[in-house]
Amino acid sequence: MRITFSEDGRDFVRRDWSNLVTADPAGTFFHTPQFLKLYWEEFGERPEHLLLAFGEVEGTQVGAVAFERFDTTLRFLGGTEVTDYMGPVSVPELGDAFARELFAALGRRDDWAVADLRSLAEDKPWLERLGEAAAAQGFSVEVTDDQNGVAPFLEIPGSYEEYLARLPSKLRHEIRRKARRLESEVGPYHVTVATEATLLDDLDLFVELHKSSEGPKGVFLQPGMEIFFRRLGEAFLHRGIFSLTFIEANGVKMAGTIGFRFEGTYSLYNSAFDTRSRRLSPGMVLVAEDIRIAIEGGCSAFDLLKGDYAYKYRFGARPRAVKRLVITR
Q1: Which of 36, 160, 299, 314 shows its CA 20 to 30 Å from the CA of 141?
Q2: Is the residue at 317 inside a domain?
Q3: Domain membership flag for residue 314
Q4: Cα separations in angstroms, 176 against 161, 203, 269, 292
């Protein structure tokens, strides 16, 4: 296997590795060159910080990973605030070989001293692969908990009723109770899904709801971050990946969520609600409806992404650890 490095952002397109993302069981929307290209365009500080690495066997691309370099620190491309999973992707049977050859090739470079590799799901093979490959080069390897190092995850069946039936009775009752309470207070509600025609207005409302939140959440969508979210919608809504949903009653949208539907997994990316309706829990009712939408759309998994918040477990999610791998030369 041959490792090729590139510092050219055009290679997000020229060396598109989307086929590796879908082939690799660890691949997510966050690993796609399209997501990473958009991230790089919005948040990349200097062109020379980018480092892409590709594995090739007899001219065929079999592995890919995107890095950023900050002084002498090497990191996966993608900020921890907006990129829940990071790392390489490869043809599954060549993952071990790609990890070995990648670190052998990195060992021949003199532009890094520490690799701070975050957002590696513990239940996927890359955490162990990369650690073993780095150790084989004589590097020091340390595994620690990542920032917000738990991503609650839910496997979902073929129907919403079956999903509810699988839940412990207490959780099932709570989901139904919240929906009944909302309807009794505000009347019949329904879920609206953004379309290309409504996207701009719907994003305006989502941003407004988000900025009205209390605490750090209310200041998260600073201008640069807001542009990033808007570009995600513009780039991925028409492809059926980006989803923006609201729960609405009497013409008022009380809560909204942004999610990604990718290769059978629906990932709940962000949420916001009208604080005036807090006691009615419209956000919780909407997440339950998002699970229904995911099931009806053929998804088999619902990922609540990073953040070990109690509300996520009220939908039957289980914790998934997300780790940080620190490699020192």
Answers
A1: 36
A2: no
A3: no
A4: 11, 28, 23, 13
Do 29 and 84 belong to one domain? yes
Task: Classify residue 244 as exposed, middle or buried by CB count within 10 Å of its CB (0-12, 13-18, 19+).
Answer: buried
Residue 135 phi/psi, 5° resolution? -60, -35
Average pLDDT of 229-239? 97
User: Do both 161 and 265 map to the same domain?
Assistant: yes
- Report pTM: 0.95
Task: State whether the Cα torsion 156-278-306-264 is positive or negative.
Answer: positive
Q: Is 272 helix (H, G, I), strand (E, B) or coil?
A: strand
Residues 6+ apart with CB under 8 A from 134: 103, 115, 141, 325, 327
Per-residue pLDDT of 76-125, as tens digits, reads 999 888 999 999 999 999 999 999 999 999 999 999 999 999 999 999 99
pLDDT tens sequence across 160-212? 999 999 999 999 999 999 999 999 999 999 999 999 999 999 999 999 998 87
Q: Please state the domain count of the chain.
A: 2
Residues 184 and 209 in one domain: yes
* Judgement on whether residues 295 and 172 belong to the same structural domain of the protein: yes
Average pLDDT over residues 294-304: 98
Same domain, 125 and 47: yes
Beta strands in 168-320 (DSSP E): 190-193, 242-249, 252-262, 265-273, 301-303
Rounded Cα gap, residues 277 and 252, in angstroms: 11
CATH of the domain at 190: 3.40.630.30
For the chain, the helix, strand and coil percentages under 3-state DSSP, each to the nearest 5: 40, 30, 30
**pLDDT of 223 strictly over 80:** no
**What is the reported pLDDT for 220?**
72
